[in-house]
């Protein structure tokens, strides 16, 4: 097979490129000229340079491919450039869909998020759940939801696209929570906020394996939740604590976290700075809770991921060596 991966230099995209190459597939990667491509420096893929909204670049990248994996996204919580996020997440997805449809690719796999379900208030949901949250928790929530609506619209008109909805994506090279785990494993994380917050977890390598299974076996127009399970942040640090022999971080009182968010948020907006805590991050820590059931992917795709405990143990072992 010949496959295009948008966002090939990213965390998920780079792991997908490596697994496709390991299978013997020919891979094309769409990246920006300014992209840092160190994650794929040892790969043999063909690189096409261009913006995700540039249809000429997309056409050049997609010509002759069988599968398109759309992983490119602007992922951030807190203080973000809403216009840029909408351009990448919504208009970029629209461009990929339109070009893929025009060229006639045999299958597109879209990397969505369980966040499209909105706040489930702790209720465990599956792919049949209809979003109940009327508003949006932030720009990422809004733009990924609207991008998913576009994908669903194209699917309803017969375009062969499947959506993968991952929970929190973990791995030793995870750019989001990975540095936090690394700091903890080195004994440098003394305090934390929101120990009761529930986090869904999937290993990045299991996610990309699920994406390939979706290309091979996924029913056009369907969604597949990809999650190994969930646990509280406190329990996660408890597991890592046993591996590292380091005490669990002290819980910062909720009123202090809220106060810090209220103070730092406007400062961050004035100085175009991403503070460690903001009003949106406070909302995600204490108010928003999305829990999911990945049975469908296991049954229909034959997806068999690592357990949450195996994921955390593997990451801890790798980080102890580094």
From TrEMBL:
Pfam families: Epimerase. Transmembrane segments: none annotated. It comes from the Bacteria. Residues 3-226 form the NAD-dependent epimerase/dehydratase domain. GO terms for cellular component: cytoplasm. This is NAD-dependent epimerase/dehydratase family protein. InterPro entries: Epimerase_deHydtase (IPR001509), NAD(P)-bd_dom_sf (IPR036291), NAD(P)-dependent_oxidoreduct (IPR051783). One of its GO terms (molecular function) is aldehyde dehydrogenase (NAD+) activity. The lineage of its organism: Bacteria, Bacillati, Cyanobacteriota, Cyanophyceae, Coleofasciculales.
